Amino acid sequence: MFCALPYLLRDFSSSLVFRFWGLDEAVLMSKRLPRKKDRNHYEHPNPERKTTFMSSGEVAKRPKEDYTELAIQGNIRYLSSAIWKMTRLTSLYLNNNSLTSIPGEISLLVNLVHLNVSYNSLRTIPPEMGEMTQLRELLLDHNNISTLPTQLGKLFKLCKLELTGNPLGGHILDIINNPSCRTEDILSYLIDHLPGMCPLYFLYLL
Are 137 and 44 in contact (CB under 8 A)? Predict the structure, then answer.
């Protein structure tokens, strides 16, 4: 469904477009990893979404908790805390805006599987995002991100991580620039550098 919901945002500098689509696993670090054949070969289950136009009145009558997919577009700079109450969301599209940060409260969206924040002005990623263990697709490309929180290494279900177009440096950049780089290579590096975390090879011996 396609609608405008200005009350969800604090920035009204441009036209705002909200899209909602209805779509008919949290893994703790002690549980098994996904099978390798399921990693790095991920396709969105609903690539061709059908939208329905809705008036603001129709949107107001429908509980926000009912929506499972949400897209926000319109040069947005800030996100309203009302979004974090939409706990049934499985997909959130915040791409092509002017966001400079994402609040840690995004981790309240415990059912989120797809998150697209590409083509913004993000400088940092909140460590709390590492608690969103349902994520399978995380698009962070084309931002101003220079470092990644090591907590992202806990996203064991993540199959697709896009980081191109960011000013990343150090060894993480060497990993990304490797032609054979896989998502699990990045996650392995991050989890190995997570403070207080035992190396995975040691965990396997326990």
Answer: yes
